[in-house]
Amino acid sequence: MARGSSPSNQLDLLTWQPPEAVARFEDHIVRSATIAGRIAHGVAASLRDAAGRGLTRADIAKRMSLYLGTAVSKAMLDAYASEAREEHVISLPRLMALLHVTGDRRLLELLAEPMGWAVIDRRHLPLIQLAAVQERRDELARQADALRRAARAGGAL
Predict the structure, then answer these.
(1) Dihedral sign, CA of 112, 88, 57, 30?
(2) Are residues 126 and 55 in the same domain?
């Protein structure tokens, strides 16, 4: 190997990007004037992506039916994915079944994001809790420093 070159299988640390903590739809994909329209666009995008992985709407409907114990048809999925079919907004149990079948947590993020929340992998919870504890510790340290300065200024120290 020539000096200064690297093997082709070596990772370039400068091009590495951390994995996304939150999976979400790009804004242009779910853009709509209504919440129901955003959900329909999200369902449609999720179904398109599942089809790209070889999972047809008929397959998804069948698996959702098994998960729910009640019939879900391809036509129902088509209606849920259509913004024009305003009377056919997906119900929560069926959305849960769709999440179960596709594993597409962007659908949950679509619901959580307007509330200022994020849907994250449970394995990240300890890190979030650690950050909250460190923030509180830093706040207490600032308060202690301020009290120490006040005590010095008042002659108590």
Answers:
(1) negative
(2) no
Q: Is 38 buried (19+), middle (13-18) or exposed (0-12) by CB count in 10 A? A: buried
Does position 5 have pLDDT exceeding 60, yes or no?
no
Q: What is the pLDDT of residues 48-68, one digit of tens each?
A: 999 999 999 999 999 999 999
Query: Residue 11 corresponds to which tokens in the numbers above?
Result: 């990772």
Average pLDDT rounded to a whole number, residues 120-128 = 91
3-class secondary structure, 15: coil
Residues 35 and 108 in one domain: yes
In a shared domain, residues 81 and 135: no
Residues 6+ apart with CB under 8 A from 51: 57
Q: Does residue 16 sit within a domain?
A: no
**Looking at the structure, do residues 97 and 68 belong to the same domain, yes or no?**
yes
Distance CA 9, CA 14 (A): 15
For residue 144, the enclosing domain spans 121-157
Cα distance between residue 128 and residue 20, in whole Å: 15
Q: What is the three-class DSSP state of 113? A: helix
Q: Do residues 111 and 148 both lie within one domain?
A: no
Q: pTM surpassing 0.85?
A: no
First to last CA, the chain: 67
